[in-house]
């Protein structure tokens, strides 16, 4: 509403019409009537009567008049302006009427013959606009001269020519377009801000809120933004509580596991050879449980605070070779190998422990599921584009692969595929979840795909 009122006010000011000047007939009639009456009043009754007559003219007709003799003396005793005196002297000298414009006022001068010979100079100053309506100004006092605003710079739009019509149409379209644009910006602004905050939440920043960006808006869109903030706060509380519960439970399980390990060592010393196989199975399950608890703690720590990341320069080529060497040593136990087929030299900024854990989890996962006698192949390719670039780490095994519908789900915590990859091969479904989280914290991504002809490949992009 404020915009509409402001636009109307500006348009009215810029297109204000030019006030019609007083027609020549009007001016000629004033000069003829008042000049003759002024001369007659002065010659019959003197200066005082002339002054009274001229005051009456100024009060009623808004015309300031003076009567000068041939020597330039003002006969009514009234103060005249330099312009009026100059014009009176000119007409007394030439005997011809004269006029000039001064600040929206017209000064008219003419001569009238005197009774005893010679002439008078009658000078009248009057506004060029239409006559002022009666009753204006304090009663009993001379009315001030009416001043008028000059015509607006766009008053030509009021004409009847084709150009004026086109100009009016263009002005209406531009004004409407500007108002619609400003209105659309006002309406869409909270939606854009809400979209930005939604993207932050989708990236994992559950503390993002849209309320501060909405200011003092009180409309339905602002209410929707506040509802979104309430929902985000509730989700953040639930996720934090879940992570805290998971972390607390994991910590509490560490103590009984430690006691279980001590009891297992004592049982080995007292048990006979017949119980060795059962004790070995208990030890394997205890180690697996301990490993799962460690992974849970790691995942919970990174989910809550990003692992307290301190960025360092990390040599990806050295990291890949170290992980491959460690994994190859473990793979020899099942008659497999881990080889680095391609390794470009490149570096990145990140946390060495997180990056090593991300790569190591994928490589160990590949060693676990690749068939006996096969090899796990690791490649590191670096692509540079000006000041930017990316690194692609690919880990390929020769296993049975994963169903297509499960490729996106394998990076979820505790997700397992009901196929050849079961708990019989070990693991708890947390390794790839840790990899995905570590890559996301470094601004990267991870993807998996089945290889045509057999095999499975996981690609880590940094």
Report the CATH superfamily of the largest domain: Histidine kinase-like ATPase, C-terminal domain
Name of the CATH architecture of the largest domain: 2-Layer Sandwich
The whole-angstrom Rg is 49 Å
Largest sheet features: 5 strands, mixed
How do the helices and strands follow one another from N- to C-terminus? HHHEHEEEHHHHEHEEHEEHEE
How far apart are the first and last residues' alpha carbons, in Å?
52 Å
- Strand line-up across the major sheet: 6-8-9-11-10
> How many independent structural domains?
3
How many DSSP helices? Answer: 11
Q: Please provide the count of β strands.
A: 11
Mean pLDDT: 77
Structural class category? alpha+beta
Sheet-strand content, in percent, reads 15-25%
The level 1 CATH classification of the largest domain is Alpha Beta
Q: What name does the CATH topology of the largest domain carry?
A: Heat Shock Protein 90
Low-pLDDT runs of 5+ residues are: 134-149, 419-424
Topology:
Layout: H1 2-14, H2 24-45, H3 47-61, E1 64-68, H4 82-94, E2 98-102, E3 105-113, E4 119-127, H5 162-202, H6 211-214, H7 220-270, H8 276-305, E5 312-315, H9 316-331, E6 337-343, E7 347-350, H10 352-369, E8 375-385, E9 388-397, H11 431-441, E10 445-450, E11 456-461
Parallel strand pairs: 6-8
Antiparallel strand pairs: 1-4, 2-3, 3-4, 5-7, 8-9, 9-11, 10-11
Helix pairs in contact: 2-3, 5-7, 7-8, 8-11, 9-10, 10-11
Textual characterization of the structure:
Helix content is 51%, strand content 16%. By secondary structure, the protein is an alpha+beta fold. It folds into three domains: 24-127, 2-Layer Sandwich (Beta-Lactamase), CATH 3.30.450; 220-304, Helix Hairpins; 309-461, 2-Layer Sandwich (Heat Shock Protein 90). It has a five-stranded mixed β-sheet, with helices on one face. Strand 10 and strand 11 (456-461) form a beta hairpin. Helix 2 (24-45) packs antiparallel against helix 3 (47-61), helix 5 (162-202) runs parallel beside helix 7 (220-270) and helix 8 (276-305) runs parallel beside helix 11.
């Amino acid at each position: 509403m404020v915009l509409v009122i402001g636009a109307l006010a500006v348009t009215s000011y810029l297109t204000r019409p030019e006030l019609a000047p007083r027609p020549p007939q009007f001016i000629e009639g004033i000069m003829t009537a008042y000049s003759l009456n002024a001369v007659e009043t002065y010659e019959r009754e003197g200066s005082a009567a002339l002054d009274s007559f001229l005051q009456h003219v100024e009060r009623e007709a808004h015309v300031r008049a003076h009567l000068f003799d041939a020597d330039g003396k003002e006969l009514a005793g009234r103060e005249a302006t330099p312009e009026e005196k100059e014009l009176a002297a000119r007409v007394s000298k030439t005997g011809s009427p004269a006029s000039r414009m001064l600040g929206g006022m017209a000064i008219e001068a003419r001569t009238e013959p005197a009774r005893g010979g010679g002439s008078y100079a009658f000078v009248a100053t009057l506004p060029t606009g239409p006559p002022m309506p009666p009753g204006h100004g304090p009663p009993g006092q001379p009315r001030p001269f009416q001043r008028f605003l000059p015509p607006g710079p766009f008053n030509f739009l009021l004409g009847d020519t084709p150009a004026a019509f086109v100009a009016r149409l263009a002005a209406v379209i531009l004004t409407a377009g500007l108002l619609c644009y400003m209105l659309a910006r006002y309406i869409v602004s909270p939606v854009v801000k809400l979209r930005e905050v939604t993207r932050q939440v989708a990236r994992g920043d559950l503390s993002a809120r849209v309320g501060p960006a909405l200011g003092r808006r009180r409309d339905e869109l602002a209410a929707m933004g506040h509802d979104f903030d309430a929902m985000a706060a509730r989700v953040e509380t639930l996720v934090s509580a879940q992570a805290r519960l998971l972390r607390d439970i994991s910590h509490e399980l560490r103590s009984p596991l430690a006691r279980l390990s001590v009891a297992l060592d004592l049982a080995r010393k007292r048990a006979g050879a017949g119980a060795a196989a059962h004790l070995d199975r208990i030890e394997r399950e205890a180690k697996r449980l301990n490993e799962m608890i460690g992974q849970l703690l790691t995942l919970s720590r990174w989910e809550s605070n990003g692992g307290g990341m301190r960025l360092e320069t990390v040599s990806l080529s050295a990291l890949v070779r170290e992980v491959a060497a460690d994994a190859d040593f473990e793979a020899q136990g099942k008659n497999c190998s881990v080889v680095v087929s391609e390794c470009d030299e490149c570096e990145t900024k990140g946390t060495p422990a997180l990056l090593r854990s991300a790569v190591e989890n994928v490589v160990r996962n590949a060693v676990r599921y690749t068939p006996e006698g096969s090899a796990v192949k690791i490649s590191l390719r670096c692509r540079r584009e000006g000041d930017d670039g990316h690194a692609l780490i690919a880990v390929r095994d020769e296993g049975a692969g994963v169903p297509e519908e499960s490729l996106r789900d394998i990076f979820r915590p505790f997700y397992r595929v009901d196929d050849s990859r079961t708990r019989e091969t070990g693991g708890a479904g947390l390794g790839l979840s840790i990899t995905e989280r570590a890559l996301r914290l470094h601004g990267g991504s991870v993807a998996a795909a089945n290889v045509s002809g057999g095999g499975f490949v996981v690609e880590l992009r940094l």
